[in-house]
Design brief:
10 helices; flat
Length: 156
Amino acid sequence: MANNKEALLWSIALPGFGQFLNGKHIKGIVFVFLEFLINVKGHFNIIIISSFQGDIKEAIEQADYQWLLFYPCLYFFAMWDAWKDAGGGKGKYSFLPFVFCAYFVTVGCIYSSHFRLFGLLLGPVWLPILFVVPGIVTGVLLGKFITSLHKRSNVP
């Protein structure tokens, strides 16, 4: 079995790869299939190309948000699952950064066609990526806060 960081990084590359690395082939096939389905239906590769070329309005027009909104939850769940199966997540609340990343990135996707940062429209690739940071921070801080409450009250 892979170490947890390696499984996490392979899942970042493509949901399902971390599961293959961990020997969870059925889960890996399901995650890869779902990633391809959502990617194609949401036009994600076209959106990425347009975003990298600076054509944010084209990216917004090409996006099928009904499909694209599934992507963050699939992506972060696959990352967490591969990481956990490889031995990561010893803490009781170690899943929280993944959950809050999925939530914040989904919110970033929802607002990506209108939200401007310093006057720039970031679109359905760059704004959701920026929303990873508050997701990680919120998840880590909330996990530490809940753990400290449990330690104070001696709740198992």
